[in-house]
Design a protein that fits this description.
The complex is a heterodimer. By secondary structure, chain A is mainly α. In chain A, 58% of the residues lie in helices and 0% in strands. In chain A, helix 3 crosses helix 4. Chain B is 64% helix and 11% strand. The chains are: A mainly alpha, B alpha+beta. Chain A: InterPro entries: C-type_cytochrome_biogenesis, CcmH/CycL/Ccl2/NrfF_N, CcmH/CycL/NrfF/Ccl2_sf.
Chain lengths: 147, 656
């Protein structure tokens, strides 16, 4: 499942829109690329729904610098993110963690799709024998209506 | 004086609307003559609101700052166009625009609905009037645009500089026409529920309104996206911002409605679901217009800037949406469906389309509202941003795109999946070939993006394949095929064009995301740097004076395969507000664009410069334009126009 999700993310990800400044950027391209990837997932807390990678705000600048400092100090990507979550709370994550309080958020869409699909299959099965018949029973009619 | 007249006209329009609504809802089945009254009332409402709107425009154009609204949102130095657009560049004025379009729709129903059954027409116009009364009343009581200031200030504050753009002249009217157009579908749905009459003819009457609204909404969203792209200065075109989501949800639901109304019109099936979608679509349009204004969506932390206004909005939304669904739950079981079909059929394919689109709308709705609900119930604050939406929305859309080309090939009632697959084999082969070719030519090291590209080509080629197949190319002589192609109904072309547009947008999204090049650097005057095939040279920075702003203009020369071009990005400071903006310079090469932004001055006399090369980025919006054009094309189809005489017969039969 994970490679598929990664693919879809890549396909649909909004463009990496940048307010990053040349003087912030790290000289090591690999490290800088990691910093950019992390930044895209972090919210600029004082902005309207912008990642720190998109924002001109001073706070976004500070967070970008912190991300790069932690990376230079040898933190993994997960450690950098955790470092910021510890200080700013979950609000800083643009992609919420999967936890008890976010289960509904993550499960809602797949659940609707699956339940909708099951309902359709049931209705279709019920009607399989019906297509050739002229009349419907009341129950079948109802199922049809509910479609 | 004209302002007071305008104010009075709006009050009168709301009063007439209230009377119309009550009279229509109370008397729709008592008298045939009430329909005439309703039609005249709708036209009167339109004329009065137009007068009110005209009075506002006149005050803004003449910079009459005794009008509080003009003082707060306009300035005498603004160019004429922006003085006019300032009217709706704020909450109060945009409410008047919204109501203006609402009464325009009502008047249009009144004029074009002569052939509708009288009772249906009365109910539809009564519902439209109810909306005018409610939201017009809301405007007058909580957001009155006609308030005066005394003494009148000598100069106005200014329209937010970001809004001083041609985009404000185009985007809101298009978007609102889309939103408000769905009110007609909503009113038709409510009328059907109240009267208990719903049949294929109903779907035929609703379909043009659905199409029209959908076209405008499509254009409005695309225009908004392009506006954000060039104006906000960092080259993003979709941010999954609550405001954007608010416009996207009715689009998804409206797209589903468009397809399910097709099933109902052709096969008299899916009636209840279509009614449900019509209600949902307009409900989401209402959410789109008003949740943002109530103040609870724009920021999780600042609840309603004006608590009364926010509360009234929520009450109105609850009444309309809740009332509609209550009526639906109460009356829907009384409606009987017809039209049988096998699971593998055109109907089945359209149901699948509806399942995925409805789920997508639900996913966006969940993501948008969940943080609010969580904070209200547990006090926990979380963010739901682009990474979440990209993941969930992408996961729902990908399978829809896979099955999309099969739909138009399916026969009604009972389709043959194997035969359809055989007829699509050519399109599939061509899509694989195109995707492989592009990846081979561009290096192919970019992880899994080629699959996204493949999906885009599959949808686009599948749309062409449908036309080719219908015309019979390959099965008969070229001349005969061409004649058949020309003779195809316009709806065949519009289906193919719309689906081709979807493919274009997908290709644009994937290409611009995966193959984008970026250059963030500091440049000295005279210095050159390269990005991809292009060499960017900073010649210098000039100071210029605009009509109501001071600007620093960078003079750049860009040399590359597309020839040598001059680019002039700006950094502006607006005089009245002191607000800075950046104006990016954009050069288009074929379908691709070079996007150049001038940054701050650096300490050593250089300039921060940000350049992006966005391959095929324009396909994103051109695809949307193709979809909208397809919708307009479908509106001109003969079958929609010649329906009229039959309506009268149907009505005569229904009147028994």
């Amino acid at each position: 499942m994970r490679p598929l999700l990664a693919l879809l993310m890549l396909v649909w990800l909004a463009l990496p829109a940048v307010a990053v400044n040349p003087d912030e950027m790290l000289s090591d391209p690999a490290l800088e690329a990691r910093a950019r990837a992390i930044s895209e997932g972090l919210r600029c807390l004082v902005c309207q729904n912008q990642s720190i990678d998109d924002s001109d705000a001073d706070l976004a600048h500070e967070l970008r610098v912190i991300v790069r400092e932690r990376l230079t100090a040898g933190d993994t990507d997960a450690e950098v993110t955790q470092y910021l979550v510890d200080r700013y709370g979950e609000f800083v994550l643009l992609k919420p963690v999967l936890a008890p309080h976010t289960v509904i958020l993550w499960v809602a869409a797949p659940a609707i799709l699956i339940i909708g699909g099951i309902v359709l299959v049931i209705v279709a099965r019920r009607r399989r024998g019906v297509v050739t018949e002229a009349a419907l029973t009341a129950d079948e009619q109802k199922a049809l209506d509910e479609l | 004086m004209s302002i007071e007249l305008g104010h009075f006209a709006l009050i009168l329009a709301v009063a007439i609307a209230a009377v119309s609504a009550v009279a229509g809802l109370a008397g729709w089945n008592r008298s045939e003559r009430i329909a005439l009254l309703m039609r005249q009332g709708a036209i009167l409402q339109f004329l009065l609101v137009a007068a009110a709107f005209g009075a506002l425009i006149q005050a803004f154009v003449t910079s009459d700052f005794s009008l509080k609204l003009a003082y707060e949102h306009s300035h005498s130095l603004q160019p004429l166009l922006f003085k006019i657009t300032s009217v709706w560049g704020n909450h109060e004025g945009s409410m008047v625009l919204w109501i203006m379009i609402l009464v325009l729709m009502g008047a249009a129903v009144s004029v074009f609905g002569r052939n509708l059954p009288r009772q249906l027409l009365t109910l539809v116009l009564a519902m439209q009037s109810l909306l005018v009364a409610a939201f017009g009343g809301f405007t007058l009581f909580t957001s009155n645009p006609f308030l005066r200031l005394s003494p009148a200030p000598i100069e106005g504050q200014e329209l937010n500089p970001i809004l001083q753009d041609i985009g404000l002249a185009i985007h809101p009217p298009l978007l609102y026409t889309g939103y408000v157009g769905f009110s007609v579908c909503f009113s038709f749905a409510i009328a059907a529920l109240i009267s208990g009459r719903i049949d294929a003819a109903w779907a035929r009457w609703v379909r043009p309104w659905t199409l029209l609204s959908w076209c405008f909404l499509t254009l409005g969203i695309a225009m908004g996206s392009y506006w954000a792209y060039y104006e906000l200065g960092w080259g993003g075109w979709w941010f999954w911002d609550p405001v954007e989501n608010a416009s996207f949800m009715p689009w998804l639901a409206g797209t589903a409605l468009l397809h399910s109304a097709l099933v109902m019109e052709k096969r008299n099936a899916l009636k209840i679901w279509t009614i449900f979608l019509a209600i949902i679509t307009f409900s989401l349009s209402l959410l789109g217009t008003f949740m943002v204004r109530s103040g609870i969506l724009t920021s999780v932390h600042s609840f309603a800037s004006d608590p009364t206004r926010g509360l009234v909005i929520l009450v109105l939304l609850a009444l309309f949406i809740g009332g509609a669904f209550a009526l639906f739950a109460f009356r829907a079981p009384a409606l009987r469906a017809g039209g049988l079909f096998a699971p593998i059929s055109r109907e089945g394919a359209l149901i699948l389309n509806n399942l995925f689109l409805a789920t997508a709308a639900a996913a966006v709705l969940t993501g948008t509202l969940y943080p609010l609900l969580l904070e209200a119930t547990t006090g926990k604050t979380i963010s739901v941003g682009a990474p979440f939406f990209s993941l969930t929305f992408g996961a729902i859309m990908a399978p829809l795109l896979v099955v999309l080309p099969f739909g138009p090939f399916m026969a009604w009632k009972r389709g043959d999946l194997i035969a359809v697959t055989q007829r699509l084999a050519g399109a599939a082969g061509a899509a694989v070939f195109a995707a492989v070719l592009i990846v081979a030519l561009t290096g192919g090291s970019i992880s899994l993006a080629p699959l996204g590209l493949l999906l885009g080509f599959w949808v686009a080629f599948g749309a062409i394949a449908e036309l080719v197949d219908r015309a019979g190319f390959g099965r008969m002589g070229i001349g005969q095929s061409v004649r058949r192609l020309v003779g195809l109904p316009r709806t065949s072309f519009s289906t193919a064009l719309a689906h081709f547009g979807v493919g274009m947008s997908v290709i644009g999204i994937v290409a611009a995301t995966a193959w984008q090049a970026e250059l963030v650097t500091t440049m000295q005057p005279g210095e050159s740097q390269t990005i991809g095939d292009h060499m960017v040279t900073l010649n210098g920075v000039d100071n210029l004076q605009g009509e109501n702003f001071a600007a620093e203009t960078g003079r750049f020369t860009v040399a590359g395969s597309g020839g040598t071009r001059q680019m002039m990005p700006e950094r502006r400071v607006y005089e009245a507000s002191g607000m800075p903006t950046t104006e990016a310079a954009i050069e288009t090469y074929g379908f691709s664009q070079l996007y150049l932004q001038l940054g701050e001055a650096s300490a050593d006399g250089g300039r921060v410069v940000r350049v992006w090369y966005k391959p095929y980025v324009t396909l994103i919006w051109l695809g949307a334009v193709a979809m909208a054009l397809a919708g307009f094309l479908s509106l001109t189809d003969r079958r929609l126009r010649v329906g009229a005489p039959r309506r009268v017969t149907a009505q005569a039969a229904a009147a028994e």
